[in-house]
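User: Now give one protein:

AI:
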Amino acid sequence: MIVRTLEECQNSERRVVSETWESVRMLLKDDKMGFSFHITTIYEGTETHIHYKNHLESVYCMSGEGEIEVVGGETYPIKPGTLYILDKNDEHYLRAYTNKEMVMACVFNPPITGNEVHDENGVYPLVD
């Protein structure tokens, strides 16, 4: 059994910060669960270009508003209660509107291995 609090993870190497977001990695590959679980905050008024080569990603918006634009495709609004799922290589832009940061729960399969290191050539243990 793994029991962790958001607070203890925020005060450890599991908290990763960039110019446009910060993420607290509650579960990582070393936890041997087959997926990673993060609480990610997208800073208000920012845009982040994201392109994972080989991941299934499920993201649930808990607070704030913004949008996701799939490169070469559609743009979708995001608000609390919105779930979006990316399949393997959906290059996209994630934008938080200027009125409030977005806080999201994120699940990656295969799991993220550390600060911002992805197991890009891994298998999909939840799918295989």
